[in-house]
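Regression test case RT-17, inverse folding.

Input:
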């Protein structure tokens, strides 16, 4: 029995790529923001997925623009300070105005 490899036609592959891009666009931001434990899936995961799409070499101009936009969103997300490394609250930066009153000396 002869087996011929299954290859997708250009339009079928384009449709699959469209679906993948749409899926990433829908879930990436939510996944990155995650919950108190951090991102559900890290930026490296999404960057890998997007670069895999670019590596297919079969993206239309519109698809390329969308992938580029998603990569820029990842860059912006990574440029933000992490919630656990934010600067301390302003009140903690100043010493009490009357340090002697705190120790009981007048």
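Golden output:
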């Amino acid at each position: 029995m002869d087996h011929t490899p299954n290859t997708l036609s250009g339009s079928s592959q384009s449709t699959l790529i469209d679906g993948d891009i749409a899926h990433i666009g829908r879930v990436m931001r939510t996944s990155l923001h995650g919950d108190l434990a951090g991102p559900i899936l890290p930026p490296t995961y999404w960057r890998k997925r997007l670069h895999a799409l670019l590596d297919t070499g079969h993206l239309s101009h519109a698809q390329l623009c969308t992938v580029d936009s998603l990569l820029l969103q990842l860059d912006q997300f990574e440029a933000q300070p992490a919630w656990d490394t934010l600067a301390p609250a302003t009140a903690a930066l100043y010493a009490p105005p009357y340090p002697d009153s705190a120790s009981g000396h007048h």
